[in-house]
Structures are given as C-alpha cells and as structure tokens.
C-alpha cells in the first residue's frame, strides 16, 4: 500500500476514490431511507369551509364529545351509587343523552348533507355519537338501556335538507 493511500484514509482496493464523493453517496443513500416530509396541513376554518362561525362551532368534535362523555360519566356514577333503586335517575340521564344528540345530528344534516361540505368534521361527529352510544350501553344499569330508550316518551325533530318533510326521531 502506498503512503499516499494511508494518509488519505483510502483502502488499497480503491486508490482513486475521492472521499468527498463517497460521503455524498452515503448521504444520498441515507436520504432514500428517510421518509419524505409530510406536507403541511391547511388550517381548517369556518371561512375555508364556507361556513359561518356558528355553523363551524356546531360541528367541532371536542365540545360534543365532552358533553356526551359527561352524561355517560354521570350515568356511571349513578349506577355506582345506587344500582338497584336508582333506576329512575338513570333513566332520566339516558333521556338527557338522547336529547343531547339532537343538535349535533341536525348540524351534520345541515352542513354535511345540505351544504355538502365539512365531511371530515361531520364524520367525526357521527363517530362521537356512535361511540358515546356504545359507552352508554356499557354502563351496567339495572334496566336495559336499549329497552329503556324504546319505552321513553321522548322525541325531537330533525329537519331534512332535501325536502319539506321533517323526520321525527323518537326514543322508542
């Protein structure tokens, strides 16, 4: 091995390889292994969706989730406090949950179906309502939750965006 090769740190098999070219090739190989940077997400605002601030607030997931979760938590606490004799209070809380889903469902109909916008947000609202319903069913109440909702005399009206007829949602 020549002394020139030893000084430059090159192997004897590749005496003509430039160290900077080797470093560049190694950097290029490392760049191929790295995933590409994700593009920046656009901020979703009422204006970008063509909605008023009130409409945009009506499909925000966090407040809806918090409200429904609080009702389910209240039911769970009632069950823990008095499983056997607290069924009347538990039924009232289930009715409260039923009434709490009216506004989010109406917002999904108005915005997602009627205005044909904010599909991601509307889908999130529907998933929250669904998840909350399963959470409600998971509470070990004395009376069956589905049966109680069927027997309740509660209802609310949803205005359908495609016609003049309204839909009456009933708990039974």
Explain what you see.
This protein has 172 residues and is mainly alpha-helical. It has two domains: 3-33, no CATH class; 46-170, no CATH class. The chain has helices spanning 3-8, 19-33, 46-49, 53-58, 61-81, 87-100, 102-114, 119-138, 145-151; strands spanning 155-159, 166-170. A two-stranded antiparallel ribbon has the order 1-2. 18% of the residues are buried.
Task: Set down the secondary structure blueprint.
Blueprint: H1 3-8, H2 19-33, H3 46-49, H4 53-58, H5 61-81, H6 87-100, H7 102-114, H8 119-138, H9 145-151, E1 155-159, E2 166-170
Antiparallel strand pairs: 1-2
Helix pairs in contact: 5-6, 5-8, 7-8
Principal-axis shape? elongated
Low-confidence stretches: none
User: What is the helix tally?
Assistant: 9
Mean pLDDT: 85
With strands numbered from the N-terminus, the spatial order across the biggest sheet is 1-2
End-to-end Cα distance, whole Å, is 92 Å
**Biggest sheet details:** 2 strands, antiparallel
Beta-strand residue percentage: 5-15%
Region (Disordered): 1-20
């Amino acid at each position: 091995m020549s002394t020139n090769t030893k000084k430059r740190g090159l192997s004897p098999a590749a005496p003509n390889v430039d160290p900077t070219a080797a470093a560049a090739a190694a950097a290029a190989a490392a760049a191929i292994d790295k995933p590409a940077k994700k593009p920046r997400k656009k901020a979703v605002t009422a204006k970008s969706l063509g909605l008023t601030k009130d409409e945009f607030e009506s499909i925000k997931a966090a407040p809806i989730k918090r409200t429904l979760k609080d009702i389910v938590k209240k039911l769970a606490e009632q069950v823990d406090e008095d499983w056997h004799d607290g069924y009347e209070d538990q039924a009232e809380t289930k009715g409260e949950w039923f009434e709490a889903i009216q506004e989010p469902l109406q917002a999904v109909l108005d915005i997602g179906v009627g205005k044909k916008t904010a599909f991601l947000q509307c889908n999130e609202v529907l998933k929250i309502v669904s998840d909350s319903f399963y959470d409600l069913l998971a509470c070990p109440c004395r009376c069956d939750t589905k049966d109680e909702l069927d027997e309740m005399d509660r209802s609310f009206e949803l205005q359908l965006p495609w016609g003049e007829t309204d839909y009456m949602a009933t708990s039974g």
